[in-house]
């Protein structure tokens, strides 16, 4: 799986093709992103960044000379201007990479940056830091809610971090001032201008199809003094995270300080290997082409109209049948198999506008079933093992029969080639993480939080102990907890992690779950048990009470790992200091204390020390008291575990006394729990 290597192929046709003066250059060479080759132009410097043990890569190519951006450290930034032509060529429209960016950086490469959604510009720990001194224009083809991306086809001005200072859907304003959307990943060649005017301290970004003149109105215009972000000398270049199935190309680039960048000569643009001009040219450009198409289209319309009439009649009769199918008895006897067409219509063709979110397993779309008008959420999962798919579909029969007020109901599924669609009840309020982190003015009060914790505990109790089979959820976290109309919490995504296990490649059958919620013991044993869920639920309880992520690199060092912070505060006798400060004093302190202690107990590094879910439910309901020796058990973690961060624990625990003590402890749970 080779990804995102930013490589330079040089099709330098003429000796004069690179005109480098002191304050600018014109390069009409050819950058390719993806594939593997060596960079062999002395004027460029290229770097490859690996992550996920080599599975994903990002590439950077910088012009290997600095430009003087200001006269002294405090002086204003000079005007500069750059233009380049790029194309995103993808063999699979579903995977068109994360995007690329033009970057101005203090070094001729950005070490330590990450691929994927970080675009090879930043990483989780330095994202947003003023010490980065990186100003970039991102051409983003993937929506990352983490960085508040508006859609999956946008431009953004990024200053020191990936949450854009300003962003807009990709497109341009034509001569009449009408906005025309451009698809960055269409494979067409698109020209970009990034211009900064020193006098007005204004940064403009403009894009347009290469055959159109540069629009008068920029797409993005940011009024800001850039001098705090720039050093005197800076490098300019590109960074990209293209993914394995797509390539990013730069087909010409010019840059100039204190003046307008030289126009790129379109008649000498290099060809992209393997891409024929016909399908990559902007079809809308040629007037004659339009005429030709019009003739074809008109003659087709007649035929299509006739076909539509016939199909329409057929469909209506089919739909009628379909309404009946969703009756209660049908739901009772197991999940329904939906047709792809119905889901396609319901979600308006899986349009991005219908996208509710993206998870580890796939994208979730909102939809309305035709005729019955039932609102649904459709999860779209791709999977390349047909064996795994078969087993998974069999399991859906089980999962689809689970009924509990605190579980999101699985209405049915649909299979199409290597894709699986799961249809769930739609929860208009969205997921819990939205309430915790994303929506500022609908904060949950303590009563709601405590109820959510109890709801999830009750769902887990059902999965672990009340159903005929033990079902391990494997990915408990706020993003998988949905809030219904009455503010009840409902656990979603149960059983999905199994799909991961059925992967046909044992090398990549990784531990399912989300970093921060993964039981450190699972890393040793590689097998999920109900204890794994209890661990994640412990972290979940802490997270809901404290209103912050389990690992938050942005806070002071002693607070980064939530579990450790709560532990330390408890040691100081101030465990309630960790309660979400937004709650003020509006919480019930004995409940908060119970939840925090129970959270620590459940996220104990030694699985045997964790209570089972029925005990947890009893503690939360007040039907049983936490045992007296709970503090010594929880504190034994200090001797057994050094790093709970990211769920990657130490390889061994001093197993002897700790686990024996905890085993006897769990037994005593059972006796005084009932
Ligand atoms: C580079 O281009 C500029 C104008 O575009 C021209 O005046 C200059 O002579 C060129 N320099 C070289 C070294 O070719
Ligand atoms: C590097 O830049 C110099 C000066 O601008 C130019 O003469 C030379 O051809 C360039 N080298 C390559 C390999 O492009
Ligand atoms: C640079 O790469 C091009 C294309 O891959 C190749 O034709 C050329 O010989 C290479 N030049 C050097 C100096 O390696
Ligand atoms: C960048 O240029 C410097 C000298 O100007 C050279 O030593 C270095 O090898 C170049 N780096 C790359 C990656 O070409
Ligand atoms: C920067 O310095 C150069 C010469 O040192 C001078 O010509 C120029 O006007 C200065 N620019 C600004 C914006 O101060
Ligand atoms: C993040 O990037 C910075 C600078 O690019 C680097 O110093 C740091 O080590 C990186 N952090 C991680 C965790 O990779
Ligand atoms: C940026 O765009 C504004 C119009 O929105 C224009 O007035 C200004 O001159 C532009 N600046 C540059 C550097 O192109
Ligand atoms: C672009 O390149 C072609 C072919 O090399 C040349 O004939 C033409 O004059 C160039 N156009 C401009 C504007 O430089």
TrEMBL record:
Its main location: membrane. It is an enzyme of class 2 (transferase). Residues 1-17 form the signal peptide. ATP binds at residue 379. SMART domains: S_TKc (SM00220). Its EC number is 2.7.11.1. It is found in: Cell membrane. In the N-terminal section; belongs to the leguminous lectin family. In the C-terminal section; belongs to the protein kinase superfamily. Ser/Thr protein kinase family. This is non-specific serine/threonine protein kinase.
